[in-house]
Amino acid sequence: MKKLLRGLILFVVVMLSLFIGVKDLDWQVFFQGEQQLIFWATRLPRTVSLLVAGSTLSVCGLVMQQLTQNKFVSPTTAGTMDSARLGILVVMIFLPNAPLLLRSTVAFLFAFGGTILFLQLTRFLPGKNQVMVPLIGVMFGNIIGSIATFFAYQLQLVQNMSSWLQGNFATVMRGSYELLYLAVPLLVIIYYFAYHFTVAGMGEDVAQNLGLNFRRVQFLGLGLVALASSLVLIMVGTVPFLGVIVPNLVSLRYGDQMKNTLGLTAWLGSVFLIVCDIIARIVIPPYEIPVSVIVGVIGSLLFIFLLVRRQAA
Fold first, then answer.
1. How far apart are CA 121 and CA 137, in angstroms?
2. Which of 81, 1, 9 has the alpha carbon at shortest distance from 267?
């Protein structure tokens, strides 16, 4: 019954996403030329990208929280996204005409390197304080982001970089988002190794006692997260807080067994992002607000709630 209800909720928000916008579509969408063009060229690609990006970022946050044993770590609070942004800037400077695949590869390498560096920094924190770790991650990400912004200003690329990397699905069209599909097999791989990530989340000593190579599993998980996050960043930009709040909301009800919560996390991430995107379309019609703004407002409030709740516990 719960699965049926979740499926119904997802179906409803997907239908709303397909038919609500600057130009509302109706049931004749498949028969009229203009509406048919809008549906297949923009609305369907946009909704599919919302589904994939929402589930990918949420699952990436879940994996990072397991591997770092910290509930407030995600690609946006561990310097992963900022490192990927620096990689994209490097490509824009030295290879301005590089294809998307090459840009994604460079962004992945920078994101993976930045995440590993962040993990090394956390080793110097006493007791791995739950609040201090993401705070260090935010500061680390801001430093990298400041370096990227500095060179972007020097080379007059700040407008290009800011507009390109801002979380906004309004520019998603047929033929310009398909690389995002590569995140789907990455989610399948993450599900396959979900048990390993759960064991790794118990700590290095426990994992090794159970016969698990902790370092290898950690590098695998962070590599998958860096690659998936880079794909989302390249295609739709930065979406803050999603990888933090969604896994936490799921774990409050269903616990930390990753094999059991992975599907719920992906579902809630997709639903949450689609709802925020619908709000971004209708709040000041006929204009649209970038979905990153709506997610940032709602996500920050939920993040404060989760932080206060964990501190009280």
1. 9
2. 9
